[in-house]
Amino acid sequence: MWVLCSDLQAQIEELARDDGFRRKYASNMLRWVLDSAIEAVSTDMGNIQVYDAQKASFLIRAHRGFDETFLRFFDSVPAGDAVRESAAKSAKPVIISEVANSPVFRSTTTLEVLLDAGVRSLQTTPLMGRSKAVLGMLSTYYRTVGAISKKNLRRIDYFASKAAAIIEWQNQAPAR
């Protein structure tokens, strides 16, 4: 029995060192975190973007509720994007309670893409690592105009911390 447990433990440790496994596991866990966050705040659209330093942009790693047009447009969001830039600099969520009237999106293609996707309000929360570096963003989108409750913001913060932990784990160099 101990030999079997020992063999199983060795196999698990080997998998944990495999970069392909780590990426797939992290991807699955980010999808689970996003689905849980979306359910907790009663919306049906959202995404998790991870910061890619080499590309200096945020790349979608998990999403739900969007069509290909939206995903192609936001697939690689430059680090200078107004919403993400504000969230990253302040290390606080950015909440836009009425997308159509927000100065952030005035006269931009982004506004058109959001409205076509049915987005009327949104929030974007930075995923902060233990070192206080921004690892990504957790965004939820709403089909109605309005403020997001403090209770739902606390829920999103909880899931944002889980997503940040997953990204940090994936980014750690596996011990050999």
Would you write up a description of this structure?
The protein has 176 residues and is an alpha+beta fold. The chain has one domain (2-171): GAF domain (Beta-Lactamase, 2-Layer Sandwich), CATH 3.30.450.40. It is built from 6 helices and 6 strands; from the N terminus they run H-H-E-E-H-E-H-E-H-E-E-H. The protein has helices at residues 2-17, 19-40, 68-74, 82-90, 109-116, 150-171; strands at 45-52, 57-64, 76-78, 94-96, 121-128, 134-142. It has a 6-stranded antiparallel β-sheet with strand order 3-2-1-6-5-4. Strand 1 (45-52) and strand 2 form a beta hairpin. Helix 2 runs antiparallel to helix 6. It is elongated. It starts with a helix and ends in a 5-residue tail after the last helix.
